[in-house]
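Aim 2 progress update. The chain analyzed this quarter is reproduced below.
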Amino acid sequence: MHRSLLLPLVALALSACSGKIDMPRGTGEGYSSARLIQRSPNSTISDATERKVHGMIQNSLKKQFTANGKSWGSGSADLIVAYMVIYQEPAMTASYDDYFGYGRDGTQISERAHDVGVLESKRPDYFRSAAIVVDVIDARTNELIYRNYAQGDVVSGVSDGARAGRIDAAVAQALGEFFKG
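Predicted structure tokens:
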């Protein structure tokens, strides 16, 4: 994913000055399986593009975990993987947290990202930026053991293959430290 001038946006959002946002840096050592967080059964994603992007993110998460020796998808997995997408333009921030779950600073992360990326932005031109925040949770203890992110500018009109490649790069960047342990 191409780094934008807004890279500090999420860095500052995740190391917020008003209320600390947890950024644990555990590793995958000692874990053998992972699964995606269970989202609310009442939640629907009606936008076709948004559904497609979520599918690409989920495929990429599966690819990263299996490539690093972890089985993926079991209901009794050792790890629960959650993610949130943050989208920004010069006057707004939106977060898509259907797959982020509850109780781990989602609102605080989004609010801080808005403060830094929109209200405090020095970028003079129109932009569209997106970030993915990935959480890894120990399924036995429900403890957040890892959180990281990747961010870049949104590119319009790219093919599905190019979009999937950009998403793969972002997910790999966000999870890179988790698999280095």
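Confidence is low (pLDDT under 50) at residues 1-18. The radius of gyration is 16 Å. These observations will guide the mutagenesis experiments scheduled for the next reporting period.
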